[in-house]
Amino acid sequence: MSTTGSSNPEYVNARVRARRAALFSDDEYRKLVRMTPSEIARYMEESEYEREINELGSRHSGVDLIEYSLNRNLAKHFNDLLGFSEGRMYDLIARYLRKFDAWNVKTIMRGVYSGADRESIETDLIRAGEFDESFLDRLLEASTIEDVITSLDGTIFGDPLEAALEDFEETDVLVPLENAVDRTFYEELLADLPSSEAIDLYREFLEAEIDFRNARNALRLARSGADIDPAEYFIEGGRLFNARELEGLVQSPDQLVSTIRDSSYGRELSGPLDELEDADSLIAFERALESVLLKYSRRLGNVYPLSICPVVAYILMKEREVENIRAIARGREAGLSEAEIEGELVIL
């Protein structure tokens, strides 16, 4: 692995195509919905999760076994991506995989804030970013939010979190800190991207991802009626909103939906937007956002098969697989109906 010198997109994408072929199909998700957690674990044992299920089976069972196996397998595949990437391709993949560093930082802060024990926090970590095992272990040892931020000094999140600490101390809510993490991730992701036709479309995809994140957060705020400044949730870099527009739209959910409908995303989201206007839940709309992003990334990957685009499409599809299996296992354990569980899934 090298971060300098020549890139190797042909080799990376050949490896990605092979791994993409092993992903679960929509029919398999529907099959899993009818299984108990132990049956799901046995089904996974006959798939590419065999190694994780066997290695963890002596220590865990049921949903815990499924959770740990999913996270370990996800980390393995994404670390493999970095392992066989070089040059510019490595840099682009590493930047995108920092989303899991951001996830882990927020997960640890939430755990510390709520007083959760270390094991509960560690269960939800996804060890697929650039933070290594020893660094994550050090973060897990933190007993206060201030300790977490001190441990992050020298990382991309250190200074932004330090700047947001005063707001956290004044409000005693995590919103300023979590937003600092998300903003930093996207700023670093978009910074200094080279210019080419493929990269320009990749940038458009990232802008759409930011727009969808802002739209989701805005709709959550609008539906919640909470007295929270929308600017605290706003992430720069998208094309659909600016912070001031979003602040006004949050006060008028109908206008917010209309703005999304009239945008370049309106055609893809017209059905979910119709449902959203009549529904009490945002789940269907949020799943639609994820589905649209997946389809968008797959289309870019087909247009530019020797670029970062197919790799990002694979990352999103692998995430979707893990989240779908997790949702099925948790739903079955909670006694949800098959229809309720299927409503939680991202099906293309």
Structural class: mainly alpha
CATH superfamily of the largest domain: V-type ATP synthase subunit C domain
- Give the number of helices: 18
Annotated CATH topology of the largest domain: V-type ATP synthase subunit C fold
- Gyration radius from CA atoms, angstroms: 20 Å
Percent in helix: over 70%
- Terminal CA distance reads 34 Å
Order of helices and strands: HHHHHHHHHHHHHHHHHH
The CATH architecture term of the largest domain is Up-down Bundle
Question: Which parts are unreliable, with pLDDT below 50 for 5 consecutive residues or more?
Answer: none
| Beta-strand segment tally | 0
Which whole number gives the mean pLDDT?
88
Total number of domains: 3
Strand content: under 5%
Shape: globular
CATH class of the largest domain reads Mainly Alpha
Oligomer: single chain
Biggest sheet features: none
